[in-house]
Structure formats: C-alpha cells, structure tokens
Amino acid sequence: DAGITQSPRHKVTETGTPVTLRCHQTENHRYMYWYRQDPGHGLRLIHYSYGVKDTDKGEVSDGYSVSRSKTEDFLLTLESATSSQTSVYFCAIGEGASEKLFFGSGTQLSVL
Amino acid sequence: QQQVKQSPQSLIVQKGGISIINCAYENTAFDYFPWYQQFPGKGPALLIAIRPDVSEKKEGRFTISFNKSAKQFSLHIMDSQPGDSATYFCASSSGGSNYKLTFGKGTLLTVNP
Questions:
Q1: Averaged over A11-16, what is the pLDDT?
Q2: Per-residue pLDDT at B98 exceeds 80
Q3: Residue A92's closest chain B neighbor by CA?
C-alpha cells in the first residue's frame, strides 16, 4: 500500500482509556491525513498535516489530537476513548501537487 | 455540512451492464474531482479523476462525466464485471497549500455474474 504502515491493525479498548494510532510512511510525502470510516458516513477527515509540526483540524476533530515530529510518522491520539469513536481509521499520504492520496490498510478500533 | 452528496447508496448491476454513480457538490471553489474504489478490508485507491476544464474523461471501462453548471459529476462503468464489486467514493477538493479531499458517503456496487 504505497509504503504506508498503520499500527495496530486491530485494537479493542475500554471507554475512558487513551489510545494512540500510528501511521508510518516511507514515501517522504509532505501531506498526511487521518480519516475515519463509518457506515452511512463515508470517509470523514479528522486531522491532517502539511509538514513536520504543521497540523490542522478536519471536519470531525473533536476528541482527537495529532502529532507529527518526523516526516514519516503521524500519530492520532484519542485522549479518552468513547464508544462513538468505534470506527475504522485510515491514514493517507499525498504530495499535494499531484493531489493523489494513497491510503493505508486501516485500523479497526472498538471502544467498549 | 455535507459538501459532496453521492447517490445511490447501493447499486446492483448484472454482468455486462452499465453502472452509474452520481455526485453533486456545493462548493464552487472545488477544482478536482476524483473517484476512489475500495475493496473489503482495504483502503480506498484512486480510480480516475477529472478537472473542470474538461467535460469527460475515460480510462478503459471507467468514464467520468462532469457538468460544471449543474455542479454534478458521475462515474460510468461500462461492461461491469463481478470484479468491479466494491464501494466507490466520489470526492472533491480545492487547490491551495492546505490540500484536503472531501468525500461522498460511498456507493456499494454489486455486479452479479
């Protein structure tokens, strides 16, 4: 999947616990994105990054934070997981100029 | 606020038939319109894309038709095959330094043999 690795692939956690999802790329692309996918909602942007330490909110950013300290890594943190955050999370990368996004294989997160 | 409306939610087509999925957008600043294809358990992958300076783009059996005045674009899959069974997402974006895509809600296409 275009040099994108998401970890973990599956995670079950309890309400109120912190969770961190990792996206690692080997393509040296400038842009990195976190989307969540839910039935009936399609893909919704959570946060994105346009460079190291440069991040911005997407349309569903409440309850999530991100960090990007290196070009290759983009972390998504749920400070206190809730059941509404049960979802499939996709990381994507892009170079911007081409506007083509490459998606990872996703992380299935279940919050009980 | 849904800026890209996609229909239908699901579509069943017989092998060899034509599959048509429609999308409508609201933001007139959008200038890039891709379609992504997603198979179960996989991430979406770019299928075909169009810019508003042309009204149609064709790649093999896949064609995008674009109507700027109506703010609509559609995906046509000719000679649909069972291997085309997947979820299809339209998307839109505008240019600028903080590039990001807004996706439709997706269409589950089933092609019966």
A1: 97
A2: no
A3: B43
